[in-house]
Amino acid sequence: MAKVAFCGLGLMGRPMAARLLEAGHDLSVWNRTARKARPLGEAGARVADTAREAAQGAEVVITMVADEHALEEVVWSDDGVAAGTSFGSTLVEMSTVGPDAVRRLRDRLPEDVELIDAPVLGSVPAAESGTLTILVGGNDGAFEHHRDLLSAIGRPRHVGPLGAGAALKLVFNSTLGAAMAALGEALALAEALGADRATALDVLEGSHLATLARGKRDKVESGSYDPNFALGMAAKDMRLVTEAAERAGISLEVAAVARRLLEEAVAAGRSAEDYSALIAHIAERARRAPG
Questions:
Q1: Least buried of 37, 95, 116, 200, by fewest C-beta within 10 Å?
Q2: Contacts of 183 (CB under 8 A, 6+ apart)
């Protein structure tokens, strides 16, 4: 079993860290909001006062934070991860920050600290059950060395050199906003045409949007959007997608529209809700439209 530090205990981080603890790893944890670490402390993890303290003596340090700004803070602040890592340790960056942020992280880390990027596909239920897909970027040796550790969290898949995991996470996320917007517009059209919402969802479960329609049906019908994946995070991810496309010299028009709709929903106060609350935002938007 490995000595592991886990920094970042949000909606996804806390169940991911719990999986490592349940697998028998020697776990220390840190979170900016200390109360979020208490359940893991009660389950047997050491709760550190700083990210630096969590990282000291750890063979592997995992970061799972909201965005690149948070990653900068958790790694490079005076009490950050970098100040606590030691020769031969590995930093596993699992946040969704994009490949450029991963490369900047590599440039600043000491050469004797290994770095792999390993963002995940899936939301809270998959994190709790250990069935996340983990997209691992890094050299073959680093992947093989840490495969068993990552297998406690989900299904690791080596997708290429450093940065490849972060890149393919953006590719995957480029579809999320567009698909949710399509489902939202389909339901808005059903309402405008006088169709019953439950019947419309029945029909959509047989469409190309079947997985989304089934997975988000309870939230849509109840109007309660408790987050599995927060809408504000989805908006951040779509911003990363469109910015990466611009730097690559391509135009993603559908992704740009999805980003705009998500940012509208954030401005409307839905940031902390599940990203399927975009459906409710689109419905309200459609009702306000002239005619």
A1: 200
A2: 204, 209, 212, 213, 216, 279
Q: What is the CATH number of the domain that holds 256?
A: 1.10.1040.10
Classify burial at 52, counting beta carbons within 10 Å of its beta carbon; exposed 0-12, middle 13-18, buried 19 or more. buried
Token pair for residue 59? Answer: 């063979």
Residue type, 64: M
The domain that contains 57 carries what CATH number?
3.40.50.720
The region, left, alpha or beta by phi > 0 then psi within -120 to 50, assigned to residue 194 is left
Distance CA 232, CA 265 (A): 9
How far apart CA 131 and CA 155 sit, in angstroms, is: 6
Give DSSP secondary structure letters for 144-161: HHHHHHHHTTEEEEEEES
pLDDT tens digits for range 220-255: 999 999 999 999 999 999 999 999 999 999 999 999
Asked if residue 205 and residue 178 are part of one domain, the reply reads yes
Amino acid at 41: G
> Domain span at residue 123?
3-162
Residue type, 177: G
Helix (H) or strand (E) holding 5: strand 3-7
Q: In angstroms, rounded to a whole number, what is the distance separating the alpha carbons of residues 98 and 117?
A: 10
- What is the distance between the alpha carbons of residues 136 and 129, in angstroms, rounded to a whole number? 19
| Confidence bin at 291 (pLDDT 50/70/90) | low
204-230: string of b/e by CB count within 10 Å (b at 16+)? beeeebeebbeebbebbeeeebebbbb
Fill in the DSSP letter of residue 270: I
Q: What phi and psi, each to the nearest 5 degrees, are found at residue 134?
A: -115, 120
